[in-house]
Every structure is written in C-alpha cells, then in structure tokens.
Amino acid sequence: MLNLVIFGAPGSGKGTQSAKLIDEYSLYHISTGEVLRHEIASGSELGKLADSFISKGQLIPDDLMIKILDEILLRHLKDREGVVFDGFPRTIAQAEALKELLAKHGSELHAVIGLEVPEDELVERMIKRGQQTGRADDTPETIKNRLKVYHDQTQPVQEFYRNQGKYIPVNGTGVVDEIFADIMKGIETSTGEKSRKK
Ligand code: AP5
Ligand code: MG
Fold first, then answer.
1. Could you report the per-residue pLDDT of 134-175, keeping only the tens digit for each?
2. Is 90 designated active site?
3. Cβ distance 198 to 25 under 8 Å?
C-alpha cells in the first residue's frame, strides 16, 4: 500500500497533482472538498450544513469531517493499492485521527507532499478559477478567509509531519508536469516507491 497526503494552501494545486498521482501509482483519490461539494449539489442535510461553513471559508467541524472520512475508508480502502488524501488532514486533530483510521485497517501514512506556492499566486489562481468555473468559494472575500484559516489552523499540520520525517516540500509553481516530476522524485527518495503505471 502507498498512502499519501497532498498538502498545501487553497489553490496550491492539490487537485491538479492528485489526478496525476492516482494515475501514476494506481491510487484512490479522496478529496474532502469534492465530497462536500457533491453533498451540497445533492441538496442533502449534510450538504446544507457543509455549505454554511464552506461559503464562509471556514472548516467543517473536526468530529463531523473525521466521521465522513471514516465512512469513506470503510467503503473504499479494501482491495485498493493506496489512497491520496487531498484536503485532509487540515487540523492536528484530523492528523491524529488519520493515523488511527489507517491503523484500524492495518495500514499507515507513508508521506506528505507539501505544495509550496506564494500567496499572491494562490489568490490569482483562485480568482481566475472563480471567473472561469463559478466555484462558489472562489470569491475575493471567501478566498481571504480560506487563507487565514489555512495559516491559523492548517499550517501547524506541516510541522506535525515534518517532526515525523514524513513531510516532502515541493515547489508548486511553474509547469504542472515539472512539479509532478519533483513529486515523483520526492516519493521515491522518501518511500522507495516507483511509478506503478502499467
Ligand atoms: P478544498 O476543496 O480542499 O479546497 P482548497 O483546499 O481551498 O483548495 P482548492 O481545491 O481550491 O485548490 P487545490 O489545492 O486543490 O488546487 P487546484 O489543483 O484546484 O476545500 C474546500 C472547503 O471545504 C474548505 O474551505 C472547507 O470549508 C471544506 N473542507 C474541505 N476539507 C476539509 C477538512 N478536511 N476539514 C474541514 N473542512 C474541510 O488548483 C487551483 C487552480 O490553479 C486551478 O484552477 C488549477 O487549474 C490551477 N493550477 C494548478 N496548478 C497550477 C500551476 N502549476 N500553475 C498555474 N495554475 C495552476
Ligand atoms: Mg482541490
């Protein structure tokens, strides 16, 4: 198994690089943001609750987010070659829960890839995407709050994994394929895993 976290600020390229990771290493992609947006689109009670946080750029409460992830892993972890966690964990409590959730399945987290992008570029990317796709939380006011929440609540997770020797920093600016080549190098150095592309 190869379990990876793709970590970084809003707009750093987690979704973009996850698409390449799942293809290259035959992994299952879990984007907690996408799971929540899907619930919002379906009009479920969970979606309504999630929307009340996402629209303000705030995090969904830890206990709820951890419960959702637990259910996804129960349904999808069996018979998989591993998972890319995109947008989770975002707090120390979530990072601790992830360790327990994976241990419950006899597994563990192998590496955390941290996409590092300057803040002005993050804002530029999200404003552009907001104009092109209409993603609801890509508005100037909400972007500002998402970045503040990232600094206050999520950045400590980086130190948490650095202390465990699991954090692989990657420059997240430039050409998408070149960033991915750096990610692959980091994975191989840190875990010994090579491409599993058939
Ligand atoms: P989530 O969906 O995870 O959003 P996010 O972290 O804000 O990040 P984004 O999806 O905006 O960016 P990304 O890093 O995936 O980058 P992307 O590849 O899209 O979370 C949304 C909300 O859900 C949260 O605010 C919170 O409310 C809630 N939530 C989610 N998970 C939660 C959790 N665990 N706990 C609590 N609440 C949670 O790229 C961005 C743009 O840049 C794209 O347009 C892309 O095409 C472009 N781009 C990508 N790479 C490059 C490049 N190299 N050069 C130029 N442009 C690029
Ligand atoms: Mg994303």
1. 999 999 999 999 999 999 999 999 999 999 999 999 999 999
2. yes
3. no
Nearest-atom number in ligand 1 for the CA of 36 is 23
Secondary structure element (H or E) that encloses residue 83, with its range: strand 83-86
CA angle (72, 73, 77) in 5-degree steps: 125
- Residue 104 CA from chain centroid, whole number: 21
Lay out the sheet containing 28-31: strands in order across: 28-31, 83-86, 4-8, 111-116, 167-171
| Probe residue for ligand 1, chosen from 60, 98, 123, 149 as the CB with the greatest number of ligand atoms within 8 Å | 60
What are the start-end ranges of the H helices in the chain? 14-25, 32-42, 45-54, 62-76, 92-104, 119-133, 140-149, 155-163, 176-191
Ligand 1 atom 53, closest CA: 176
Rg (CA), the chain: 16
Confirm whether 146 is a catalytic residue.
Answer: yes
Q: Cα(11) to centroid of ligand 2, in Å?
A: 7
Spatial distance between the Cα atoms of 112 and 115, rounded to a whole number of angstroms: 10
pLDDT tens digits, 35-64: 999 999 999 999 999 999 999 999 999 999
From atom 29 of ligand 1, which residue's Cα is the shortest distance away?
33
